[in-house]
Amino acid sequence: MLFSSPTFLVFFAALLIVYAGARNYRERAAIILVGSLIFYASWKPAYLILLGLSVSLNYLIYSALSVTRSKRLLTLGLVLNLGFLGVIKYLGMVLESLLNLGAWLDIPLINAPSDWMHWALPLGISFYTFHMLSVMIDVYRGAWTHRISFRSWWLYVTFFPHMIAGPILRASELVEQLENLQPLKAKNIKLGTLIFMAGLIKKVLFADNLAPLANDLFSHPEALDFYSAWLAATAFALQIYFDFSGYSEMAIGLALTLGIVLPRNFIHPYTSRSVREFWQRWHITLSRWLRDYLYISLGGNRKGTSRNLINLLITMLLGGLWHGAAWTFVFWGILHGSYLILHRLLLDLYTRLAIVDNSYTSRALSWLGWPITLTLLWITWIFFRAPSFHDAWIITAAMAGLSNASENLTIRHYVQVLIWTSLLFTLVEPAIERKLKQAMHYWEHLHFTLRGAVYAGITLTIIFFGGSSQKFIYFDF
Questions:
Q1: What is the pLDDT of residues 372-408, one digit of tens each?
Q2: Which of the residues are catalytic?
Q3: pTM score, whole prediction
Q4: Which residues, in sequence order, are CB contacts of 383 under 8 Å at separation 6+?
């Protein structure tokens, strides 16, 4: 059930009705848990078996770890979870790479069809694995001492708004809220519905309309010239932003309707003036997870400049690999790691030259940073989206003005208007958000019939102008 599908809306409405009739915390917790499992099983019931084994086994490890804080138990939890995730998600990639290497070196290897090496990835496995690992690491570090019951553990891992594609949460952000589930409140329903509708607009009106345009452009890399290559990169950059930020806002809105507050996952990332700032605004909960549990564990910036730069590169490389079992994702991570290293070196240079102390120069560099940052990001999105390095190199060459296209694509006028209008929307989005916050007082006190009329208008707009239903991009990760 996609959040943007009528089936899900019926499911959630039914869940709210049942939840409203609950008499105490136990009933409310049971309703949320059963509803979450029904939601997850709607994709594929067999996934519940794997989920049940993973959640139960990890709870046993967590329970023992919370008593002993044993390094061996933490290591066991890390090895089991990352090892299983590695086999499920990356074994096919490794075996296929070995076969390709053998063919390139003319070394006879097992001649096997490639399709057996790639199987359907259990939905949300990367996300719920990270949720459980964060608790174990926090317990070992002494950062989390609150005892989690078996029921609360299941609620924490399977809570349906965030389970499949985040936000990636720590126990401290969710467990105590789930252990104190309250009856429905009109204020939460009003605000939660508004946030959900904002995410729905991003997904259906923008992402779903941009998806076929990006797909069409990326399916003809040889035909792209300088302009159409940049148009392709822009189309996908906007599609993935509206798709993923739309999902995150819908998740936040759904949770808030039930009285649960989730953290923001996106804060206008395409207004960033450096790649470092981009990662403070894009998929914020993943950035924080990688920083706190990987980068800091590697030594962070505590062991000198050279080690710090290596840690940045390793963190982003593994962050790229987390996104998918393909070398293009690894290269995407390496590019971002290289950008962060360059940013760090430039900051050190500016400090030595006292550039940051000059307000005019500093302001000019800041403004210049925005187009440079977008250019660098657009290049990385090519490798994120392209199915192979071959296609990615062709498109990046075209973006550099080195296109060999003998016959350029005919791009309809409305396609260009939609893409550039969508980009403009991302740039004015901060101002729109400020205006909406100022108007919230009036919205909350607006008569329910008027609010209903607004929602009806939005629904009709979505029906008439929404794109064909597309699966959320991050469901594949």
A1: 999 999 999 999 999 999 999 999 999 999 887 766 6
A2: 323
A3: 0.90
A4: 328, 329, 331, 332, 335, 389, 392
